[in-house]
Design a protein that fits this description.
The complex is a heterodimer of chains A (457) and B (225). Chain A is of the alpha+beta class and 457 residues long. Chain A is built from eleven helices and twelve strands. In chain A, 55% of the residues lie in helices and 18% in strands. In chain A, strands 2-1-5-4-3 form a five-stranded antiparallel beta sheet. In chain A, strands 7-9-10-12-11 form a five-stranded mixed beta sheet. In chain A, strands 6-8 form a two-stranded antiparallel ribbon. Chain A is rod-shaped and about 155 Å long. Chain A starts with a helix and ends in a 6-residue tail after the last helix. Chain B contains eight helices and eleven strands. Chain B starts with a strand and ends with a strand. Classes of the chains: A alpha+beta (457), B alpha/beta (225). Chains A and B meet through helix 5, helix 6, helix 7 and helix 8 of A and helix 1, helix 4 and helix 8 of B.
Amino acid sequence: MTLGIIALVMVLVWLITTWAMTHFFDEVGKAIIEDDLREYGVIYENRGAEAVTMLFDAGGHGEQDQGLRLIDSTGTPFVDRPIPIFPQTGWPEFPNKLSPGTDGIDWLRNSLGGGKVITIGRRRFEDGSEMWFARNNSGDLAAIEQVHELLFVAILIAITMAIGPTVWFASRVLRPVNSLIDGAHRLARGESLTARLETSVAIPELRIFAEVFNESLDRVQTLTEELEAANDQLAHELRTPLARIRGNVESILNSPEVTPAILENAARAVDEIVRSSAIIRDILSIRAGDSGTMRLNLELVSLNDLVRETFELYSASAEEKGLKFKLETPSEDDVGRFDRQRLQQALCNLLDNAISYTPAGGEVELLLEVTDSDTTIHVRDSGPGLAGDDDHRIWRRFMRGSIASASTPGIGLGLSLVRAVATAHHGEAGGANRAEGGADFWIRIPFESSLDGDSSR
Amino acid sequence: MNLLLIEDDAELIRQLSAELQKSGDDVTVESNGKAGLEAALRGGWDIIILDVSLPEISGFDIVTEMRAAKIDAPVLFLSARGNVNDRVKGLSLGGDDYLTKPFAIDELRARLMALGRRRGSASPPSAVIPDGWELDSLRREVTVRGQAVALQPREWSLLELFLDHDGEVLTNSFLLDQVWGIRFDPGTNVVNSTISRLRRKLDAPGGPTHFETMRGRGHAFRSHV
């Protein structure tokens, strides 16, 4: 775009310069002829033809591509100093005759092609004789050619000066700025906390900015790591006190002399302890997934069986809620190496969500799809689907979709765990609204990863 | 049974000794890894209950040394480290079972019983089949009051587990692990609904149930009701 404009401007400059110079030299040429005709005319009238010839020859005009001719009243030339080209072409003929005594100058332009022009001025004296003065523009053409050469060099310099900064700007300023923006985007998406901005930027201000930005990132990372380590530690440490509490509450449950009301309260307390320990376990799993340290316990698993067994786990729940619950598996079995417990837990989280969010009379479908390159497990429902920016929120820890109400169970760890498990299997997890309504969540695992031999990565 | 408990948390020691002694077992307690290893190497234990994080010597190291010294008493790990890998590591080093804190005392008891029976140190499974029942394990059929009732595979596994643990309280997580092979809480009522189906199929209509659900604890099978 920029280059196009530059080229167009250069071509225009070239054309205008050429036209202006040609025009200018034309005018100058005519002025020279006019001057000479007057000067030579005065000498001719006062001193005669001989003096004119002497003056013309002394000026060396013949070599300068100028010609002179004097013609008497009968039309016979008595002085003839032709331009070097005339021996071939001869003096051209004027189309008309000037009347005697006319002081004006009569012009003739004779183009020889290739821009070469011979201009002849003619004037008539009182006695009926005529003086012709011819001029060849080859000197002008040489001058124009020289100007063109200079102009070409100037244009080259101009282009370099115009494009150079653009290239420099793009490579040393724009690229770092773009990488800054990309880096900031990555950080915003939370993909990586270890990414840093490039500091090899030519512009000092930008470099300082990148360095300061990186420093603050270092601090954020350190803080996050400390926080996460503290979280892990906390989660571990909570298990022992929970175990102590559970032991004591259970001694109430086992005691024969408590009232049903106390028994019910103790049972509720145990339920909460079970829930708390599940949350702790999920947090630790997701953390392991986040930091890439989730070590899979790979075993040979038939996905058909896994999906069918998981379907059976939930068929009672679905039936109780009045949902149509369907299973679809391919005829071909897909046996691969997976972490059975984790994969099934991820699947359970998806099914649990689908069943919780789909109103009675709705439909939940569990689907196993096998292609040449990967296996996808879909959980589709006819529930309310995802709203607005739910698509991003729901995958984050402790974030729940906007349709979740206080009464919907869960604290928003389920999908984070699904994603962590899928990622640990070199796969991915996602969710989207279906055209016919409801949501479609899936876990996709590529084949090569399900078959590789390492049980820990 | 003669149990060795190696655990450093005083409160858990108090609770576990009390509960296990209540069910008639002898419990010896060691609260650090070094003393625990010495006690384990002395031998003579029916089951060793072993915490993983211990002062001085870790539970994983103790089981490694024990197995190297040909002490073959079953080991049940109790651990606050509950991820799959720790479990797999514990079992591969020579542990026999693994329970993550916090656990239900009923579940610990059921697992100890299962380990003890495998060793023959606990009384053999009562396997008392209720009066009038006949079991055909090949066809997965129970003949009740003269009528053959076909059971689904999971129903059959559940029933077998219940028969092995007659009168014991089995927690949801124990049943999920043993019958469904899952070691996390799937948040479904699959255990309850399967037990409901067993009740419908096997209990006498209008009569007392063999399958008792105890709120907050779990489920117990009673051969005689």
